[in-house]
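Batch job 17 of 40 flagged for manual review because the log was empty.
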Amino acid sequence: MPDKKSAGAAGRKLIIGLPRALLYDRYRVLWKTFFTELGTDLLVSPPTTLETLNRGTAIAIDEMCLSVKIYLGHVEKLVGNCDYILVPRISNFGIRRYMCTTFEGLFDICGNLFRRTGQKFLSYNIDVTHGLDEESAFVSMAAELGFGKKAASKAYKKAKKAEAEDWKNQVKRQEALYKQDGLKVMIAGHSYVENDAYIGKPVTDFLKSAQVTVLRADVMDRKNALKQGSRLSPTMRWEISREIAGGIYENRKRVDGIILLSVFPCGPDAMTNDMIIRRNDGTPILNLMLDGQSGMAGVETRLESFVDILNFHKNT
């Protein structure tokens, strides 16, 4: 049971804010199940809009990538509306299994940029190379809220089970898509780009409107994805980039084309995508960079041309 520190004013439940950006799509089931099991309430920021992007851009420095600017816009939406906003610090999952440095510094970035708002931020620290694994990180985070180790460990185990089941179902649904007839295109990009309502979803919606079956490179068994990614590049250091590369390597012969979907200026993607293009063995690739400009006309023109080329190849 939580002590008094875990309760809000007048004994109400704590409200934990979850920005709907960056790692939200990857960890939403884990986070939601964990905090629900602990008995807290959750507040998720609304889907990305142009306003979200504009507000985040006004807060961020110019050098930050588009996804981080969107994230900051989501954080601002939550400021003042919850007791804590979750901003995890994830450095690595082991040797050559690093995250983008943004995820290591995001908690400090948010704490600094919103320091005058009085908003509290909550974090957990994963750094396996220094002995800080995910479970211990979650238990420590729960302790900051006043929850006991036993309750936190139980909540974490249930959350991991729910996360594994959800991912298994996603992989199963995608496997069925590979078996469909017609043109198939694999989108290779971070889930927080592909699934973002403002910058990524319009790409997927356009392809579907063109009767294209859309697959995601990163939706496969993650252990196998990392293994396949290492075959493509044994020195790749970024965890998510290796998963995406592994998905391409494993399933490239099952699709008609690949779209490398990135945002400007993503450092890991700049190097990873160049490597993928150089090591490509014949599958048509479109390298599509999103830069935050309003309107989809230019993007749709490139997508339409790519689909026309793929249909030409498929029918000849």
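Reviewer: the log was empty due to a logging misconfiguration, but the result itself is present. The CA atoms of residues 305 and 311 lie 10 Å apart. Unflagging and moving on to job 18.
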